[in-house]
UniProtKB/TrEMBL annotation:
Subunit structure: Heterodimer of SbcC and SbcD.
Annotated ranges, domain Nuclease SbcCD subunit D C-terminal: 267-355
Annotated protein name in UniProt: Nuclease SbcCD subunit D
Presence of keyword Nuclease: yes
Protein family (similarity comment): Belongs to the SbcD family.
Amino acid sequence: MRILHTSDWHLGRSFHRVPMLDAQRTFLDHLVATVRERGADAVLVSGDIYDRAVPPLSAVELFDDALHRLAAENVPTIMISGNHDSARRLGVGAGLIGRAGIHLRTDPEGCGTPVVLRDARGEVAFYGLPYLEPALVKDALGAAKAGHEAVLGAAMDRVRADLATRPAGTRSVVLAHAFVAGGEPSDSERDITVGGVAAVPAAVFDGVDYVALGHLHGSQRVTERVRYSGSPLAYSFSEADHRKTMWLADLDAEGSVTAERVDCPVPRPLARLRGPLTTLLDDPRHERHRESWVEATLTDPARPDDPMARLVERFPHTLSLVFDPERAPEDPSASYAQRLEGRDDHQIAEDFVAHVRGGSGPDEQERTVLRSAFDDVRVDDGVHEVSR
C-alpha cells in the first residue's frame, strides 16, 4: 500500500506578517497532483491542519476545497487534529464526511477504532491518535498519570489491543501528533511541555508497522518506522535549512517500509544573513539572496542609521532585523565594584551608554545632556538637604 504522509499545514498562518494563503493553496494543488501522479492509496494528515482553534474564513474555505478535491480522487484520506486545532470544531460532521472517504479522527476515545483499508495483500488498519493534552484526556484513556508518555502509552495500549483481535497479517499504521525523542524541533512549533517533559520515547509506538508523526516542522526519520513529514512550508527563519517534503511510503505485504521524500513547492527561499551593515550591503556573495525572504542580524558596535530602509534597497523582501553588536570581552575576573572603582557618576553613565550600544559611547551633544541631567540632580539634592 502506498501512503502519502503530510502534516502541519497551518492553514491561515502568516510568515512575519506575509500572508501565506496563496502558498498554502499551491501546496494543496501539489498534494492532489502527487496523489494522482504517484498512485497513492491513502493520504495521511497528522495534525495542525489549521494554525489556530478559530481559523479565518479564508483558511476554512481552502480546507473545504481540499476535502472536495481529495474526495474526488477516490483516495481515502485520514486526518487527525493537532495542538493548534480545535478538535471539536475540526471534527464537526466527521461521520458524514467519512462517507466521502475523508476520515477525521479528533476524539481521543476513538484511538482504538481504526479506519481499515484493503489492498491486494490484505488489510491495513489506520489508527488516528489526535493531539492528546494530558490533563484533559488522562481519565478518559485510563492513563496512570497526566503526562505525554502516559497518555500516549494508554492510547497505544488500545491500538495494540484492537490489533490483537484482527486477522493475522493485518498491517498497521498510527497517526500521532507529538514530540518524540530524537526529533529536531524548530522555533515555529508551539510548546507542548507538561511538567517539564514534552518528548516521549519512540518505543511507545512499538508493535505497529508505520508511525506518521506531526508536530515538528522538519521532515525527519526518528527510526525507519517512525517519521515526521514536517510542515510543507517554512513558518520561521529557524527553518531556513529545511528541505520541505512529504513522505511517500510503501508498505509491503509483511509490513516493511520503504519511503522517499517528495519535495513541496517553495514560495520564496529563506536567508539568514549576519554581519556589519556595510558588509551585508556590499558583499557580492549575498547577491543570490536578493529575492529571498531575509532575516538580517547586524553586528555593528553602534546601531547604524536607518538600517531597514538601506537593507530593503538591496534585499526587497527583508522581513526581520535583529541587532547583536559584537562587544569587546570584559575581564571575567573583575567584580562589578572593581569595574566601578575610581569612576564618577558621569563616567559610569557614559560607560552604560557604551555598553548598550556595543562599545560606542555618547557623542559630545549626548555628553552635554548627561552632564546637565547630573547637575540638575545635584541641585535637587542640595535643595532637599537645605529644606531638611
